[in-house]
Amino acid sequence: MTSSIDRMRAAWRFFLNGWRDWDQTASFVPSSRFLVDALVQGADLGRARSVVELGTGTGTVTEKLLAAMRPDARLYGVEIDGPLLQATARRLPDPRLVAIHGSAADLAEHLADAGEHGKVDAIVSCLGMSLLPPELRDAIVDSAARVLAPGGVFVQYGYLHAHVIVYSTTRGFSQFHLGRYLGRYFAEQRRQIVVPNIPPAEVLVCRGSLPRDISAAA
């Protein structure tokens, strides 16, 4: 019963955040199971011992990641909304889940504080990249690329309509091509289209972090 209440409270808070902080959440509702499945499958969790989720939100993706992870793996869930993170952690009392309250732009510091001093095997980002302020978006992806192990994977989703038009409450209308953007930070990409999601989405599975000077100059 408590778990159901936490889930409903989290979903309601996520919905409210969509109205108050549209540029941060980029959605009013959690991802569909089709999009969640694509994110989890892209993370190659069969051999991952250290996994990071950026933007745990209501825990929809978190729960599926835990179900697919190895028994000896650890999941670091990073979320900037403290109450939302607490509700998800209560609903998913898995000892492998380490809840981290803070910005995804400071991954190295957060992971070190949590006792993870090495590189991580997989990062799954549930952040709305198309609407984040450009400086923050760059800081987050650069931070992720820096902590990713050689051969590690970075998984990010985006909405297909962003290629044509994106509306930001602070910057107005623009366009955002996720693949081109992530190409500044990663050498390899694999793209999957998720049509059943609302709105239709794409999932990019990226490998091969580029050196900082190369990505910054691109």
From TrEMBL:
Gene Ontology MF terms: L-histidine N(alpha)-methyltransferase activity
Superkingdom assignment: Bacteria
Keyword Transferase: yes
GO BP annotations, alphabetical order: methylation
UniProt entry keywords in alphabetical sequence: Methyltransferase, Transferase
Protein name: L-histidine N(Alpha)-methyltransferase
Assigned EC number: 2.1.1.44
Ranges of residues in domain Methyltransferase: 51-152
The keyword Chaperone appears for this protein: no
